[in-house]
Sequence to fold (425 residues):
Amino acid sequence: MKYNFFALLLIILLPLYCYAPLSHAQEHTKELRIHTQDNTELPLQNYPAKGKYLLIWIAAGSGLDEREQNFAADLAKQGIEVWQIDFADALYQPPDNQLLRNIDGKYIADIISAAHQQTGKQIILASHSYGAIPVLHGAHQWQLRKQTTPYLLGAILFSPDLYARVPALGLEVEYVPVLYATSIPIFLYQDQKRNTTGQLPRVIAALRQNNVSLYVKMLPAVTGLFYKGDDAQQTMQTLQHLPKQIPAIIPLLAHTPTPLAALPYRKTPAATDNGLDSKLIPFKGNPIPPSIDLYDSNQQHYLRNHYTGRVTIVNFWATWCPPCVEEIPSLNRLRMQLQNDNVELISINYAEDPARVHRFLQDVNVEFPVLLDTNGDVAAQWKVFVYPSTFVIDTHGKIHYGINAAIHWDSPEVITKLRALLPVK
Fold:
């Protein structure tokens, strides 16, 4: 029998491919399944450990990514068993933020009970971003079941997103009602450069209304600890060292036992959309725009403390935000179409390292000024909550339109609305 060179190479390499080493996380995991009180079967990933603590990790977003899996594997090495669940996969639902806002807390309460019954261990809940909402719902449902033993020690939350829906630009955030009925001990890690950092004082105040045992730690220079788009050196170092801190945090949570009685709260109708805009809408907040005093990507100083006499478009964005990047070409075309009109387009990059922005601009054509809001202070002054967010200021110096999403800026509808703000020639 004869083989050509490539066929022979394939025969040699195929066994190596099929028996390639498992990833760092896969080496430590096995699958388990539990049945809820309504007989729903929920699949979970289990990272076994011999210690006395078990951490239930609820995925936030689209699946359990590599960072979350590696984090669980590292916790298991520290003697903390981990159960991970991705509700989008478990319930065959689209992976979006609305799912996490609307998950029935009874499922999490069932997992808490099953974990304790099967292992006899003390339980900690954990998640990041929108996953914090089902964590709080689950703990509240667990309390409603008239517990007799406080084997739920509390929760560890990473940069929690606890708002009920994305607010319209300029308006204050409304939080999910369960935040105000939470009484379990919480250790809260906050990414310093995350867009929710400005909301942290309000979240802390809401939790402390109920005398929650609350511990807060800021993660310096981190934008998204469990977001693969944040590959900054400080973020990767934090990920590496964080699992070693958790064994010291759990006794802090255990120091104040979780109340066994649930606090009452008034449920509100679930949001039917994510709050993001699909077109220019009238601005509803304070119409007076804050001043801008920043340096651009070419280290040129830019100062704007008045906006009268022209239409000004102020776009907040980040390189790690796919919709932000996707709308750049249409913003370029908008600038070209309105180059003979009295319209100014500027963008403000949110809280990124200038060197990273400079590398991005070498690869992506951006034909308008890019200002650097390195600490995120300007975005906080403008009450920017999601990215991209864009403000349209009229010739009287008032914010006329706002949009907290990406759109096609060179569409006829948008062009018409912008030109309508200009004085009649």
